Prior knowledge:
Chain A is of the alpha+beta class. Chain A has helices at residues 51-58, 112-117, 119-122, 126-148, 187-197, 234-255, 257-262, 279-286, 297-311, 362-371, 380-385, 400-408; strands spanning 16-28, 33-39, 42-48, 65-74, 82-91, 152-153, 159-160, 172-175, 178-182, 199-207, 220-229, 276-278, 315-319, 332-333, 336-340, 342-347, 350-358, 393-399. At the A-B interface, strand 1, helix 3, helix 4, strand 6 and strand 7 of A face strand 1, helix 3, helix 4, strand 6 and strand 7 of B.
Amino acid sequence: MQRILSDQLVxxxxxxxxxxxxxxxxxxxxSVAFLIVRDSAGLAQVVVTDPVxxxxxxxxxxxxxxxxxxxxxxxxxxxxxxxxTDPVxxPLGPPAAPPPFDLYRxxxxxxxxxxxxxxxxxxxxxxxxxxxxxxxxxxxGFRAALDTRxxxxxxxxxxxxxxxxxxxxxFALDWFGRPAxxxxxxxxxxxxxxxxxxxxxxxGPVFRAEPHDTVRHLAQYTSLDAELGFVADHRDxxxxxxxxxxxxxxxxxxxxxxxxxxxxxxxxxxxTQIPSVHFADALRIAGAPADEPDLxxxxxxxxxxxxxxxxxxxxxxxxxxxxxxxPFYTHPDPARPGxxxxxxxxxxxxxxxxxxxxxxxxxxxxxxxxxxxxxxxPYAGYVEAFRHGMPPHGGxxxxxxxxxxxxxxxxxxxxxxxxxxxxxxxxx
Amino acid sequence: MQRILSDQLVxxxxxxxxxxxxxxxxxxxxSVAFLIVRDSAGLAQVVVTDPVxxxxxxxxxxxxxxxxxxxxxxxxxxxxxxxxTDPVxxPLGPPAAPPPFDLYRxxxxxxxxxxxxxxxxxxxxxxxxxxxxxxxxxxxGFRAALDTRxxxxxxxxxxxxxxxxxxxxxFALDWFGRPAxxxxxxxxxxxxxxxxxxxxxxxGPVFRAEPHDTVRHLAQYTSLDAELGFVADHRDxxxxxxxxxxxxxxxxxxxxxxxxxxxxxxxxxxxTQIPSVHFADALRIAGAPADEPDLxxxxxxxxxxxxxxxxxxxxxxxxxxxxxxxPFYTHPDPARPGxxxxxxxxxxxxxxxxxxxxxxxxxxxxxxxxxxxxxxxPYAGYVEAFRHGMPPHGGxxxxxxxxxxxxxxxxxxxxxxxxxxxxxxxxx
Lengths: 428, 428
């Protein structure tokens, strides 16, 4: 008999079916026992009256993997309106050891640290798995939005001979006896691939050896990168980003609606035109001194509130960040060269996306590196490509975990990451 | 005026359009000059008769990025039956330096080493970019096939505290002062996630510090991993793999048909049931001694020819590899415990996929490690999870680059990899 999932019971009402999953919970009452089986689709209630079967169920602790052959009957009080009766219950493995927390309770009764130490089991709880389902849906939406716009997916090296962003916070490794580094971003490669496909994207891990121990930093995270050529300036990039975000949120709504509901999360609307303020105005709105070179988290929060109040938008572009605070490949604003054609996108008052227009002329790269006192040699393979014809281009990078955390209201990014890596955590 | 791509010219016949791209080639005849512009969609022929425009075009070397505003007219002799006349040509950047090889020739006239040294430019040639388009299509097909079958996409750590596969050939790195390693596969994590979602997949980089310098090994490659729970044995995994491969090839045909044609590649048919031979029989068919523990490349080639001859199949499963040659998490064949429930899939006589059923009982893991004289401690976080209820499960891993190389007939895997990493190559 073919196994069915718990969400396929209703059409099988009156018939004998086979389900399989984990013993989610047992309720051992006097005259009857209820066995709740969890599978990837949800929960199924099995009613046990036969004393022999009951004795077997009593010996199967929560999380034991079982198979149940039983009859589907209507019961308005059961989950989805049906339950399983006259069961034959067969374990598919040995009795499970009890996890360090009860997975059947609505809230996982353990601190985050215990959850992370026991991630393989903690992730089975809906509060944790829902975030990962949302994550999968968001990535699917990212790719679908860009596929429609003729972007080509690429896969680029994660080990490089020199650091991507100027210098610090890289993980060093030994590459067959040579020094090498984990890539902090696919920045250089996605730009180079604009020369091949015009429009490219990559979904992959990036590595930051930042000694931050905060709720919003990870040492490995999943970066959703896109880059496109033949732009007039950064505003063309912002249009694609807006549409990509809308596609991601549509996909989350469509593919992970139950997961959103499980977390009580609300999908934000993406305005047709996301409001945008120049950095200089952003400082004023946030009440920061006019000579601040960057936005602090408190400024971002203030801007998020302003966007919600003034524009009813949970998203806000800040454009024109000072050149001094942006990487060397950033294109300056031709009208105000101290400012850049770089932008950030704030989501609910937190930086979610960084992007902008990049330099595309070889001479500009040489000048930019010289102005920062950096040698060309470590970047030779990258900079050299700009001698051979590169169009005006730009792009953006979305931090997947940060996006999901902000969307679900998780206070710590680790709550939406399966197996986080940070300053302290290298296992499991 | 909105830019259009070169494959959108025909519906604009008779109108003035704007295109942009790279100077692919110039043909400077006496009375007329032809400017061939390359963009992401293909080539467009621009006819230049005005002496002033001609002088400008003469000053724009191949690979310079240009914008052309001109009128679309029918010309049966031109690519796609139309060409552009009365052009205004504007460079979008400085004149390009000539690449070390001519990109407009049908065959890239440079050895692979020169191509790889100059990858950002070499990849612009159709012979190289086509393989990457096929690669993108194949990955899209992989995901679509598994999404349909309720698999959930995951993202797992690429830096781990101990090596995934027993011991050798790992890249060591410094993780905030602690020793760590680049993940050789997402094997442990995808198994653990079967406990959460039952069915998972991951597309991501894996790292092998193998001192191989061969045409079919890379030190970083893209692994297409899938794992599923509640299987009877490895044969359930093989069914999913068969359908996934069919989905990949369908997607390549549908999304990258032109790229296939450019490489003269033929899509193989995937039999409804891929032929399968047991390892012991495979040795006999390949003419190998009966006590060989593994298949050598020559054996795989012989088996590939046999499958084509006897089953008209370009694919062949070899099942039941000896336990001695499979990793410790491999499930033995209950009927013949010296053999495993592990399999390889050969594609045109080369190993393309490795997969199998895994152990799912905690006690079996302890026994398997003990039998190999390996301590449990390095695997503690992984092995421990099996105490908490894991279903019978299995999975597979497809090497993306190897798949594309075999599909396109590329003799060296580096030809289908954008920026390969190997024993000698860490740049660009």
